[in-house]
Amino acid sequence: MIQITIDENEPIGLFIRAKANQTGHSVSEVAKEMTQNSFDATVRALHERFMQGEFSQGYMAKQLSISRLDLIHLLEAMGLAVTNV
Amino acid sequence: MPDQFLYDTSPLITLAVARLDKGTVLEHFLAFISITLSETVAQEATANEAYSDAVLVKTLLNSGAIRHIPIPKTPIDELLDAYSKVDDGERDTIRLGTMLPDCRVVIDDQHAFFVAARFDVRPIMLLDVLVMYAQTGGLSKRLAQNSLDAISKTGRYSSAAIQHTIYKLNRITDDPDHN
User: Fold this and answer.
1) CB < 8 Å to B112, chain A
2) DSSP sequence for B102-171
3) How far apart are CA A75 and CA B48, in angstroms?
4) Residue B131 contacts by C-beta under 8 Å, 6 or more apart in sequence?
5) How far is A60 from chain B (nearest CA, A)?
6) Cβ contact (<8 Å) for B156 and A54?
7) How far is Cα B96 from Cα A51, in angstroms, rounded to an integer?
8) Cβ–Cβ contacts within 10 Å for residue B72, how many?
9) Out of A55, A56, A69, whose CB is closest to B51?
């Protein structure tokens, strides 16, 4: 389990609180959903460009600040193509 | 035909994870071919020993079954390093490839493949290594097909690339000595 602390006075904290109030979900649920969505969007946006051959797999790993080995296993876990050939 | 291959990280890891009989395709391949890595790829492929493929590659490196070579200074360093959207492992594989003319460079990446081709290191996709060895009898057609099946199950290649490879292997005439 990974836990993070978000300052409620920061814009992201204010947003999470506001969204939780509006939707009736807990602040934890909203924060978790936001993190998941942001992660998915980041990886998928880079992956799409990788699949188009805009840059290499190693370059994509560097953009995500993880090793190529970790990227290969991450893409596999997400059900995304590991190679673009 | 060259008997040595210089592997980039992605095809190496694919071989190390694809299961065939009681081992991996990588272990089967090493009976037929010589695999060389740049030092950078050796580090990339073993960066996290939480993965079984990394552990296998590290074991094979330590035993000398896979060779790894430090990155040399080359006359094309400045030109190669200017390709900023190819990262260290791919670049160093290409760099080493320019110094080892008997090695073919195995790269499964569009952009790195393009750069490798421009440096005349004769890049080849992993799937075409299978085809090449089956064509020349270095690998039996049956073992090539079984290896392709194992690689296909990793889900790392598009259906188009797998189907094309099946087509290429099917066109190879059966040789009773190799089946």
Assistant:
1) 56-58
2) TEEEE---HHHHHHHHHTT--EE-HHHHHHHHHHHTSS-HHHHHHHHHHHHHTT-S-HHHHHHHHHHHHT
3) 16
4) B144, B165, B168, B169, B172
5) 9
6) no
7) 26
8) 13
9) A69
How many Cα atoms sit within 13 Å of A8 on the Cβ side? 6
Cβ of B111 and A85 within 8 Å? no
Span of A56-65, B9-18, B23-32, B75-84 with lowest mean pLDDT: B23-32
Between A70, A82, A83, which is nearest B48 by CB? A70
Task: Please check the confidence at residue B144 and state whether its pLDDT lies above 60.
Answer: yes
Interface contact A53-B110, CB threshold 8 A: yes
* Locus of tokens 């602040």: A27
* B65: its two tokens: 């079954």
| Smallest CA–CA distance from B162 into chain A, residue | A85
Q: Is residue A18 over pLDDT 90?
A: yes
Split at pLDDT 50, 70, 90, the class of B175 is low
Beta-bridge partner residues of B123: B105
CB contact under 8 A, A83 and B51: no
Q: ∠ CA(B71), CA(A69), CA(B2), 5° rounding? A: 50
Closest of B9, B32, B62 to residue B144, by C-alpha: B32
SS3 B38: strand
Residue B72: phi and psi, rounded to 5, are: -85, 160
Contacts of B153 (CB under 8 A, 6+ apart): B18, B19
Residue range B68-94, pLDDT digits in tens: 999 989 999 999 999 999 999 999 999
ipTM topping 0.90 = no
* Residues of chain A neighbouring B45 (CB-CB closer than 8 A): 69
Average pLDDT over residues B121-149: 92
